[in-house]
Design goal:
- By secondary structure, this protein is α/β, with parallel strands linked by helices.
- The chain folds into 2 domains: about 130 residues, Response regulator (Rossmann fold, 3-Layer(aba) Sandwich); about 90 residues, LytTr DNA-binding domain (OB fold (Dihydrolipoamide Acetyltransferase, E2P)).
- Helices cover about 35% and strands about 30% of the residues.
- The longest helix has 17 residues.
- It is elongated.
- About 35% of the residues are buried.
């Protein structure tokens, strides 16, 4: 079994000890080559030791986890962020399909995150995703933020603002764009409704998740007319909430 060279960075000594213990017990393919409570030292260790994977706490003094990432012009290492839950942070990470764990760290979540990171290391997707995260962190408006959509050829980075709506089709999601052909993702509609939550999208029906910016008309029989002449149903039990939301 190939061992994954890993560095742990967390300013809390106890959290670092717990994480190390869990990794040693549950993740035999992980080789911890360094650990530190100092994010500044962490940057130096990454540059010196060139790990494949980093466990990186977000909320730290001096440099937070995102600041650490931004010290690298070519961050080609896989990251699993750790956070004590912060909406903005989690949203930013999810948009880029990067791993994260919520403290206190659950054993099953840790194993799943490491499994996913191992797959990503084989597929060499870290650099593109890390660069997207850095780009998104510098973007204040939703309009210019991008999300990662795995496609048959690799990863596609699309601006949220270009999505008219997502349509659930037999467990897959068909994503309809402005001014280009739709694409099919193997992720479910539920994945996209979580990914694009807290933005300008609304789940109007269990199979339809629409960008509110593209609504042109609401029909009383319970349909929306969207840009490019798309007609989408609004489910009966969501109509009142949806209309209230539009008015606000």
């Amino acid at each position: 079994m190939m061992k994954i060279k890993t560095i742990l960075i967390d300013d809390e000594r106890k959290a670092l000890a717990i994480l190390k213990n869990k990794i040693e017990r549950l993740c035999p393919n992980i080789e911890i080559i360094a650990e530190t409570q100092s994010p500044v030292e962490g940057v130096a260790l990454i540059k010196k030791l060139e790990p494949q994977l980093i466990f990186l706490d977000i909320a730290m003094p001096d440099l937070n986890g995102f600041d650490v990432l931004q010290q690298f012009s070519e961050p080609n290492f896989e990251i699993i962020f750790a956070t004590a839950f912060n909406d903005y942070a989690i949203d930013a990470i999810k948009h880029c399909a990067i791993g994260y764990l919520v403290k206190p760290i659950d054993n099953a979540d840790l194993v799943a995150a490491v499994k996913n990171a191992s797959k990503n290391i084989e597929e060499k997707t870290a650099l593109a995703k890390n660069k997207l995260l850095i780009e998104n962190l510098g973007v204040q408006t939703f309009q210019n933020k991008k999300i990662v959509i795995p496609s048959q050829d690799g990863l596609e980075f699309v601006k949220m603002v270009d999505i008219i709506f997502c349509e659930g089709v037999e467990g897959y999601t068909k994503i309809h764009f402005i001014n280009r052909k739709p694409m099919l993702s193997s992720h479910s509609i539920g994945h996209f409704s979580k990914l694009l939550d807290n933005s300008d999208f609304y789940l109007v029906h269990k199979s339809y998740f629409v960008n509110l910016s593209y609504i042109e008309k609401y029909l009383n029989e319970g349909y929306l007319i969207l840009s490019e002449n798309h007609k989408v149903p609004v489910s009966r039990n969501r109509r009142q909430d949806f209309l209230n939301n539009l008015k606000n």
